Amino acid sequence: MSEARARAKLLHEAIGGTLQVVHRDFFDEDDAHAIPSASLEDVFSELSRSYDVDMKWLIVETDVVNVDHQAEDEFEKAAVKALKAGKPMHEAVEAERYRFAGPIRLASQCLKCHVKNRKSTEDRTAGLLISMPLIQQSF
Hints:
- The chain is α+β, with helices and mostly antiparallel strands.
- It contains four helices and four strands, in the order H-H-E-H-E-E-H-E.
- The chain has helices at residues 2-26, 36-51, 74-84, 111-114, and strands spanning 54-58, 90-94, 97-106, 124-133.
- Strands 1-4-3-2 form a four-stranded antiparallel beta sheet.
- Strand 2 and strand 3 form a beta hairpin.
- The protein starts with a helix and ends in a 6-residue tail after the last strand.
- The model has no long low-confidence stretch (mean pLDDT 82).
């Protein structure tokens, strides 16, 4: 499990950091196209196809912008509770797969799209779910 945890933390940091940079550098609210998190879902699909690593966004403290991001099973529901409580991660091993959930910070500039009827501009939390085999396959 420690190998899978290290790989999940690396992926979480890489995707979370990429999302922040993409928002900062390429998202123009006056000329909006796909939002960066949606663009990253193409990366998620390729990681799933090529490496059997499944990733998805998780609604924690945001509006339902995409119903696919709602917690679906007990692990995901527990992850929402853990991330809302400020935990740095939530993890489990299920059926020879390591499951990881980590927080993604939504800064005040993110809230105009992710939290429409907000009462404050305080940072909010979303989540990133990562699921992978416990043992890395040869690819």
